[in-house]
Write a structure and sequence with these properties.
The chain has 402 residues and is α/β, with parallel strands linked by helices. The protein is built from 21 helices and 11 strands. The protein starts with 13 loop residues before the first helix and ends in a 5-residue tail after the last helix. This is AAA+ ATPase domain-containing protein.
Length: 402
């Protein structure tokens, strides 16, 4: 697979690269960011998301915990009631952030969890224990679903599980097996998905609207439109080039991946400390009320996305342009085309600086009395004003008239 840093960037896929970086940074600090990439088949949606596996940062977990328990906040049935001293005795370890995929042949038990048959059939000490499924194992990491529109159509049971996982941040999952107590555990996982809405069974929002709304953002992958871009992609994907790379693995690949990881760690640190300015919150709130948006998740995603976008783009603080950049991604799957067009046209007609200008205008109005006082204090004495500036005579008023 081509390393993440070598994947071709162009205007049609830049949003997906941005969302990948934003989601990883947010997931690193325990707040999921779910996104869905739509586009024609073969445009590289899945390739970009799978390549991101190599740039994921490490997480620290309780040693050998298959639920990826955070030592500072254990949540699984085996560790959640342990004391700090007991956890210290078990020890901790660093592992790469989990990246797991849900296949279309997966069963409910594979996704959520089931009885551990190895423990159950142990000849010496048989024991009925739960084996966590893909979702509990992906805790504090990424869960990828390819062709999610087909999964929503053919596997409603798995879709219901995803609704619980993505419903809140963190979500939760309930594991049920006959003969064992029901286990309900929190799960903090970012769900990435890909689909082609032009193929059967159609767009996700038309198949399972509840699941579509759970995604914070949706981006559309466009085809490349440059000869140079396409030629470079062909070169990187040629068989001879792949064989040459396999024989001579370059140290550069590891260094570039480390650069991405270091950036993500820094972005995560900044995200924990960054707040959205009040005037931008008010701007988002006005959009919600004016255009009768239904989902509160939409404006929450605008806030989360604007902060993350400003950070990965190197802005000192979140700007109104960061908010407007997120609006199409947040609303595309939540409103009809006419409403989205009205929102976009409203933003363009008022200008992207409106929120900031309104905020500054409000502050300026508060200082009007002080400005009036200064105005009169700086006035000139009448004896210092020339007569021509003070009085318009009949001659000056009628100058130029015939």
């Amino acid at each position: 697979m081509i390393p993440f840093y070598k994947l071709e960037r162009y205007e049609g896929n830049q949003n997906l690269f941005d969302l990948v970086m934003m989601s990883i940074a947010s997931t690193s600090v325990g707040e999921p960011l779910h996104f869905h990439a739509e586009g024609l088949r073969g445009t590289g949606k899945t390739t970009i998301m799978r390549a991101a596996r190599d740039i994921l940062p490490n997480i620290t977990r309780i040693k050998n915990c298959v639920f990826n328990c955070n030592p500072l906040d254990p949540h699984c049935p085996h560790h959640k009631n342990l004391s700090e001293a007991e956890i210290k005795e078990i020890g901790t370890e660093e592992i790469p952030m989990p990246f797991l995929e849900i296949s279309h042949s997966a069963k409910v038990g594979t996704i959520s969890g089931s009885i551990d048959l190895v423990k159950l059939t142990d000849n010496d000490t048989p024991e009925a224990r739960l084996l966590p499924g893909l979702i509990p194992q992906a805790h504090r990491g990424i869960l990828f679903v390819d062709e999610i529109n087909r999964l929503a159509d053919t596997s409603p049971e798995i879709t219901d599980i995803l609704l619980d996982v993505m419903g809140n941040k963190p979500g939760h999952i309930q594991i049920e097996e006959s003969g064992l107590p029901v286990v309900d555990i929190p799960v903090s996982v970012s769900v990435w998905a890909a689909s082609n809405p032009d193929e059967e069974p159609g767009a996700l929002e038309e198949i399972r609207r509840q699941l579509s709304d759970r995604f914070d953002m949706v981006c559309y992958m466009e085809r490349p439109k440059s000869v140079d871009v396409l030629a470079h992609m062909l070169k990187e994907n040629s068989y001879a080039n792949k064989i040459r790379k396999n024989r001579d693995i370059k140290q550069e690949d590891y260094q570039k991946n480390d650069e991405f990881r270091n950036n993500i760690v820094e972005w995560s640190r900044r995200y924990e400390e960054t707040e959205l300015p009040d005037f931008l919150r008010n701007y988002i709130a006005r959009l919600y009320l004016k255009h009768n948006l239904e989902s509160i998740r939409a404006i929450e995603a605008m806030q989360q996305g604007a902060i993350l976008y400003s950070i990965i783009k190197g802005h000192d603080k979140a700007l109104i342009s960061d908010v407007t950049q997120m609006i199409p991604l947040v609303l595309k799957h939540r409103v009809d085309g006419d409403t989205l067009l009205k929102v976009v046209n409203d933003i363009e007609s008022r200008g992207t600086k409106e929120g900031r200008l309104d905020f500054m205008k409000a502050r300026k109005n508060k200082k009007e009395p002080e400005q009036d006082e200064n105005y009169f204090q700086s006035g000139r004495s009448m004896r210092d004003i020339p007569r021509n500036d003070l009085i318009n005579t009949e001659k000056t008023l009628t100058t130029g008239e015939n």
